[in-house]
Amino acid sequence: MYTFSKFRLSMSLFDVEGVTSFLDKWIELAVANEVQELDFNVEANGVSRYSLPATIFSAKFVTTLKLSGCNLEQSSDTIRFHSLKKLALHRVHIGEQIVHKFISECPSLEDLILSRIGDFKRVCVSHAPKLKTVTIDEYFELESIEIVAPSLQQCTLAYIRKSCVIDMAGCPHLNSLKLRSVDIEILDLISKIPLLEKLIIQNCDEITEFEFSSNRLKDLQILRCYNMDGIVVDAPNLLSFSLECRDVPYCFSINGSSQCSCKLKFLIKLDTEGDILILTWFNIIKEEFLGVAHQVKELSMSINIMTPLDSFSLDEFRNRSPSLPREVENLIIDVWNMRNIPTSKYAALLDCLLWVCFPRILSIELKRSCFPLISIECLELTRRKHLFYLQFFYEMMINRDTKCCNSHIIKCWRHYLKDFKIDCFIPYKDPKPHHVDNLMAELPGLPRRNYLISSRLVFLFTY
Ligand SMILES: [Zn+2]
User: Ligand 1 center to residue 404 CA distance, Å?
Assistant: First the structure.
């Protein structure tokens, strides 16, 4: 007889009736083999769903149980998963009572994921002495969540509505919280988590202001909360801050540790008065964000140019922002609809970007303007565009002369750039960067499948 420690089955069916006995046999075989990891995903597209056989309750050696898309009805009084450490239920039809039994009768449980269970009103976690992480993603159905878990450190809540009553007072060691697409009172919840060190707030459109102070908080991420108007954080031990936003918050202040590193991502859409707006954005990013952040590890700008930009210039920007560029570790630029910038304005765009900051690394991305609508023509077009911009910027760097800026105290990047190189590119469908000594010379010899999606230039600026 074969033995195996892991059994994984993933299939999508229209009609489950014809294959039920076959699926039951697989479960029996897995249980008879005393598998430790059982991952069973049966997505039924028709009316009926696959119901797991009672045999599954005898899988007493299983340490990881992942079930997705099926029904689970209890047939025995006791659940004997004594070794179960990880339980993940996704779109499983299961009664509240069985879930609560699972939790209270699996004393080794460390990781619990409940996702899109449906018809679920109440999650009650108790008698889970070893539980370390919990994820509850319930699509606005839940009325209450009560967790009593003395070892719990990490909790993720997604799609929880305001009326849901959340009680995590029984989790004295909770230190990491992720909230995604929730409309709950966030400040009220986090004020009851005294050891909170890591907080992620993502896609929470209901939250408009975030004013928080904490001596323990070390990592804060506010991502894609598109109605956020104000962020005021006083956290002297904060080591890492990430922000991804579409509109500039009216009020922004982060008081973190002196070693706090920041990752900032701005989604900039220029649909009216693009010329004025792009300079306003650059100015705000430079003065309000880079000006208050200690160390900016990553500044990412995704610029969608909907109307032609033809009148902006470095002189105009210089008047608005008469200060030296800020230092940034990594600047990532992703321009959509580059065709709305006439070729004669490419230099002005680069001048303005390098008036905002001096990056050590500049990454030019083109992946999102075309992908994921993939066709060979599209890839080829992207490849040609990317090469064109890259070549343009490369030539500007190589052929820089410093006869400009004579009458100005603060000069443009050309006067401060000591050295640069094209370091690597990232090919489509291959996340590994390809390092090159001289991309321009090596490009003609590259295999055609290596469509570029991102290329990286390394700079050395000295003030
Ligand atoms: Zn100059």
Answer: 4
How far, in Å, is the centroid of ligand 1 from the Cα of 417?
11
Whether residue 88 contacts residue 113, with contact meaning beta carbons closer than 8 Å, is answered with: yes
How much distance in Å is there from the Cα of 48 to the middle of ligand 1?
A: 70
Average pLDDT of the residues of the chain: 87
Q: Can you list the positions of beta strands (E) in 195-336?
A: 198-202, 209-213, 219-223, 230-234, 240-245, 251-255, 261-270, 295-305, 326-336
Distance from Cα 348 to the centre of ligand 1, integer Å: 12
Distance 312 CA to ligand 1 centre (A): 17
Note whether 40 and 18 are within 8 A (CB).
no
* CB neighbours of residue 446 within 10 Å: 16
Q: How confident is the model at residue 367 (pLDDT cuts 50, 70, 90)?
A: low
Ligand 1 centre distance from Cα of residue 297 (Å): 26
Least confident span in 121-125, 249-253, 328-332:
249-253
Q: What is the DSSP letter of 107?
A: T
Asked if 105 contacts 83 with a C-beta cutoff of 8 angstroms, the reply is no
Which residues contact residue 361 at a Cβ distance below 8 angstroms, ignoring those fewer than 6 apart?
Answer: 329, 330, 331, 423, 456, 457, 458, 459
pLDDT at residue 65, as a whole number: 95
What pLDDT is recorded for position 442?
A: 72
Ligand 1 center–CA 318 separation, angstroms? 11
Backbone angles phi, psi at 315, to 5 degrees: -60, -40
What value does the mean pLDDT take over residues 148-156? 97
Average pLDDT over residues 361-383: 66
Q: Measure the CA angle with vertex 364, ends 239 and 249; round to 5°.
A: 45
How far, in Å, is the centroid of ligand 1 from the Cα of 406? 7
pLDDT at 297 over 60: yes
Q: How far is the CA of 326 from the centre of ligand 1 (A)?
A: 17
The environment of the single-atom ion ligand 1, i.e. residues with CB closer than 5 A, is 404-405, 411-412, 414
Distance 405 CA to ligand 1 centre (A): 4
Structure tokens at 301: 């700008």
The pLDDT-based confidence of 17 (bands split at 50, 70, 90) is: confident
| Residue 77 clears pLDDT 70, i.e. is over it | no
pLDDT grade for 444, boundaries at 50, 70 and 90: low
pLDDT for res 294? 72
Ligand 1 center from residue 408 Cα (angstroms): 9
Whether residue 449 is predicted with pLDDT greater than 70 in this model: the reply is no
The CA-CA-CA angle for residues 322, 300, 226, to 5°, reads: 100
Beta-strand ranges (E) seen in 279-373 are 295-305, 326-336, 357-365
- Ligand 1 centre to CA of 272 (Å) is 30
